[in-house]
Design a protein that fits this description.
heterodimer, A: 354 residues, D-Maltodextrin-Binding Protein, domain 2, 2 domains, B: 239 residues, alpha/beta, Rossmann fold, six-stranded mixed beta sheet, four-stranded antiparallel beta sheet, globular, binds adenosine-5'-triphosphate, binds magnesium ion, ABC_transporter-like_ATP-bd (chain B), ABC_transporter-like_CS (chain B), AAA+_ATPase (chain B)
Chain lengths: 354, 239
């Protein structure tokens, strides 16, 4: 009964606070959309200058989405590249060729180098096999054939880490808003005032978890639906599993936010937890390869809730895993939440001994 | 008559600083007690221990026969803190309703109590305004209304009339006297206003954490050979 009164009051307070509502529901959608636009932007075709290029080579290069420009009698390579804004310059001498790369953007340079190499390798192989046209055609197709375990050749970078982004936004906004919620209750003195009423510590923690939990639940659904139906993020597995994972993520964020708020004395101090608690978790949530990290850092990753959340979300959304495949991640997340909730009960002891 | 509140050899320190030293006295049911003493003497600390928000380092406090802190007994204590603790985004009515629903009251009672408390502090016409739009005195009055909301047997009011105009102050005091006389409520008030102390049945004077005198206003005046409580206060300070 008292818990219900408290939940009602928490929800009422948030409904009155339009900015917080906007932060909770609109900000994540805005950022997700922005990231979608940034990462899914059209790739610009590299510009390659070529000297003494044979027709066949130029043809192959053009087929590989390279803009080819012809130059004759290049004396100063660097100068020509800068003058005509080329990403690379290919100087062919007989069967040998030199490729100079601008390399102002390593991704573009690597990509260009790879394509040029492939074309030259293919030519070399074709010349070795002096065969008739039909066999030649078959061979051309057979040299490199690519298959994908997850996704397809249409997979974009954003697809691989968007599942983790969904979890991250749920975590971040719920953490911040629930933390500040309880913090306000402390700084305005109302938490202390509540201790002069017969309310129990457990009832306060429960009300905060349920009240903000309801909001987090709504937020999760909005973010997930938006990501899947508007932004068209890949979803191979079940949407219900995605929602389940995110609700558990929200619970962890909620209990952690409330807990850390008792170590902050102002909203600004609450914000100071972001670089300490939130940012490190991004590094361990699957954008960067964890296997490539130093051993002790890999151990460190195991203490990050978002590491498990990202693993589970990527599993369901990108790899199409079922609930039983990710259940271990969920249990660990629930354990995190349980630990934080118990700590919360102790943190409130500062105010009420009973 | 049974003591409503019994404070037994209570001491309290924050860190190394001793705030209250061996306070010992009883508060009888159906009386108004005034706690007076200079700023920083420890009045608020003592009041918070009676409510059970602080725990004594030594000694014990019993309220209506129960050792404090005690959750169920809080149903019988109406507490008004020295600094207002209100939900600013909510209206006065929503604040009252929220606090009322933390106590055991049925719905009809709750509505009647909200109406009564708002009427008493003259806030009825402002109940639907947000607290953030209240003046300082209005907030103080709302805090007082919240303290009365569950019709408690014991009222503990920490400087209830600060920032309230003389007319309303008069009517609040008349209501406190009525609550004492008609409903037999036990009331503790801390105050720096000697006119208000004069209206109390008993006065407890606290200085630097010690209880230096308790008695009716007349007894204290006699004890310090003073004409009024102001002089009692000053005389006690010189000793
Ligand atoms: N939480 C606390 N931590 C440390 N010291 C405290 C704490 N609360 C009160 N004090 C100290 O205890 C002493 C008594 O404070 P208290 O608030 O009880 O005084 P008071 O008699 O109510 O004063 P006033 O008339 O100004 O309200 C003060 O010196 C104060 O600094
Ligand atoms: Mg005080």
């Amino acid at each position: 009964m008292r818990t219900i009164a408290l939940i009602k009051r928490i929800l009422l307070q948030i409904l009155r606070d339009k900015r917080t509502l906007a932060l909770l529901f609109i900000a994540p959608l805005l950022i997700l959309t922005l990231m979608d636009l940034v990462f899914n932007g059209k790739t610009v075709n590299p510009v390659l200058g070529i000297e003494n290029g044979k027709k066949q080579i130029i043809q192959s290069l053009k087929e590989a989405d390279i803009v080819v420009k012809n130059y004759e009698g290049v004396s100063n390579t660097d100068e020509v590249m800068l003058k005509y804004d080329l990403d690379g310059l290919l100087e062919v001498k007989g069967e040998k060729a030199t490729l100079t790369l601008l390399n102002d953007n390593p991704t573009v340079a690597k990509n260009l180098e790879m394509k040029v190499r492939q074309i030259f390798n293919k030519r070399a192989q074709l010349q070795l096999l002096d065969t008739n046209n039909i066999q030649r055609k078959q061979l051309q197709d057979a040299i490199i054939q690519t298959k994908y375990v997850y996704g397809s050749s249409d997979t974009e970078l954003f697809d691989t880490f968007s599942p983790m982004l969904v979890g991250f936004f749920v975590f971040f906004f719920v953490f911040l808003i629930s933390g500040i919620g309880l913090l306000n209750e402390r700084t305005t003195g109302t938490l202390e005032r509540l201790m002069a009423t017969p309310i129990k510590r457990g009832e306060i923690v429960a009300a905060y978890l349920i009240g903000y939990g309801l909001l987090a639940f709504l937020q999760t659904i909005v973010i997930v639906l938006f990501a899947i139906y508007v932004l068209d993020i890949v979803l191979v597995g079940s949407i219900w599993n995605v929602i389940l994972i995110n609700v558990i993520v929200a619970l962890v964020a909620l209990s952690l936010g409330i807990l850390l708020s008792s170590f902050a004395n102002s909203e600004f101090q609450m914000v100071q937890f972001i670089p300490l608690v939130i940012v490190p978790q991004i590094f361990f949530s699957g954008i960067f390869s964890i296997e490539g990290m130093v051993d002790w850092l890999q151990v460190f990753a195991k203490f990050m809730p978002l590491y498990y959340a990202a693993d589970a979300l990527k599993g369901v959304m990108y790899k199409g895993l079922s609930l039983s495949d990710i259940s271990q991640n969920l249990y660990i997340l629930l354990a995190f939440a349980a630990v934080f909730i118990v700590c919360n009960l102790f943190a409130l002891k500062k105010y009420r001994k009973l | 008559m049974n003591p409503s509140i019994s404070i037994q050899n209570v001491s309290k320190s924050f860190g190394k600083k001793t705030i209250l030293k061996d306070i010992h006295f009883d508060i009888q049911e159906g009386n108004i007690y005034g706690f007076i003493g200079p700023s920083g003497a420890g009045k608020t600390t003592l009041v918070k221990m009676i409510v059970g928000m602080e725990v004594p380092d030594q000694g014990a406090i019993y309220l209506l026969g129960e050792k404090m802190p005690n959750l169920p007994i809080l149903q019988e204590i109406g507490y008004m803190a020295q600094s207002d603790a209100l939900y600013n985004q909510l209206t006065g009515k929503e604040n009252l309703t929220f606090f009322a629903s933390l106590y055991k009251l049925n719905k009809g009672e709750r509505l009647r109590r909200i109406e009564y408390a708002a009427e008493l502090v003259n806030l009825t016409s402002d109940l639907n305004k947000k607290v953030s739009a209240y003046s300082g005195g209005m907030k103080r009055r709302l805090s007082l209304a919240i303290a009365l909301i569950q019709n408690p047997k014991v009222l503990i009011l920490d400087e209830p009339t600060v920032g309230i105009d003389p007319e309303l102050r008069e009517s609040i005091w008349n209501e406190l006297l009525r609550l004492k006389n008609e409903d037999g409520k036990t009331i503790i008030v801390t105050t720096h206003v000697m006119d208000e102390a004069e209206k109390c049945d008993y006065i407890s004077m606290i200085r630097e954490g010690s209880l230096i005198a308790t008695g009716t206003p007349e007894q204290l005046k006699k004890q310090y050979a003073a004409d009024n409580l102001n002089d009692v206060f000053l005389a006690a300070g010189r000793m």
